[in-house]
Amino acid sequence: MRVRRSLILISLLPLAALLSACGARGSQSTVADTGAFYVRAGALTYQVQISRELNPYSVEDKGYLAGLPAGTTPPATDEEWFAVFVWAKNFTHHTHVTTTPASFDIVDTQGNTYYPIQLNPSVNPYAWTSMTLQPNDQEPVPNSTAFFGPTGGQELLFKINDTAYANRPLTLQIHAPGQATPSTVSLDL
Questions:
Q1: Residues 75-106: tens digit of each pLDDT
Q2: Domains of the chain
């Protein structure tokens, strides 16, 4: 009898772990020390998949720089392209719209703020766009270029100053509608 009870309890452990993980999604923090953690911004859950400097001379990185607005100047000698690749999911039972690119910014420890450059999504399949997410939908959409790409996320492109390396950590802020303070994620640089 004891052996049977033990086997039943052991077989229920994976179910208990799964249920506790589901509950954690609903009670996420609005602050993440690294991009590896989920952060709640408004009604949706966001995660930074990766953040890194882009090299305009790299074959891969040229694709991430496609779709720049006309007249965008390249980075000055003391600047660089910096991309943050973001994933979002609607874990609620209601339809919600993801934040627009303008709802994100990066702040360094000296208070310098960097804003994303709006990429043309018809030219750049990685460009972050605001979209309506039904319950359990996510951005990037499964089976899309961004979903299967090496970054696993939609791109936010910034032009940052080289002083950012001395003013780390950089913090991505997500300004969700109806949220008094932004959700934040500490970025790798």
A1: 999 999 999 999 999 999 999 999 999 999 99
A2: 26-187 (2.60.40.1240)
